[in-house]
UniProtKB/TrEMBL annotation:
InterPro entries: LigD_PE_domain. Residues 8-113 form the DNA ligase D 3'-phosphoesterase domain. PANTHER family: DNA LIGASE D 3'-PHOSPHOESTERASE DOMAIN-CONTAINING PROTEIN (PTHR39465:SF1), DNA LIGASE D, 3'-PHOSPHOESTERASE DOMAIN (PTHR39465). Pfam families: LigD_N. Residues 123-148 are annotated as: Disordered. This is DNA ligase D 3'-phosphoesterase domain-containing protein.
Length: 165
């Protein structure tokens, strides 16, 4: 049995996707500004954000104004993940290879930490899809557009926002 994995589509100040990987009793988390890409080798900026509790992996709903992450959260993908080697050591070294077994994202991926820039508050990483059977060629349809709805409820971000009290 693998470790918990999820991606949440998050309509906060601006739309992004939050990658969450269970490690050490928490969800290590990265905000992916343009969302994940299935095109092998395509780099997507992933900014490290604070860890979350394991129960947050399946969260879908609206975070109220004034709270951290305020906005609509949609459970875009979920499943399990398996690190290639020692995940904690790989993250500390700045290069983690892993395999996803999600409902939308599968196969081999990499997170690579970028060199820090001046005035950078949080570490920046690159999320990169490896060349494998789950990868798509350049110019192929974007999975984010093909499958925008929740894996939990089938709802859209707009549906979730409209249902909020």
């Amino acid at each position: 049995m693998g470790l918990i994995y999820s991606v949440q589509k998050h309509a906060a100040r601006r739309l992004h996707y939050d990658l969450r990987l269970e490690l050490g009793g928490v969800l290590r988390s990265w905000a992916i500004t343009r969302g994940p890409s299935l095109v092998a080798g395509e780099k997507r900026l992933a900014v490290e954000v604070p860890d979350h509790g394991l129960d947050y992996a399946g969260y879908e709903g609206v975070i109220g104004a004034g709270q951290y992450g305020a906005g609509v959260v949609l459970l875009w993908d979920r499943g399990t993940w398996e690190p290639e080697g020692d995940a904690a050591a790989a993250l500390a070294a700045g290069s983690l290879g892993f395999i996803l077994a999600g409902e939308k994202l599968t196969g081999r991926w990499h997170l690579r930490r970028m060199k820090p820039r001046s005035r950078e508050r949080r570490p920046s990483w690159l999320l990169i899809k490896s060349e494998d059977a789950a990868a798509r060629p350049p110019g192929a349809p974007d999975i984010l557009e093909e499958q925008p709805r929740s894996v939990l409820t089938g709802r859209s971000v707009e549906d979730i926002a409209a249902a909020a009290p």
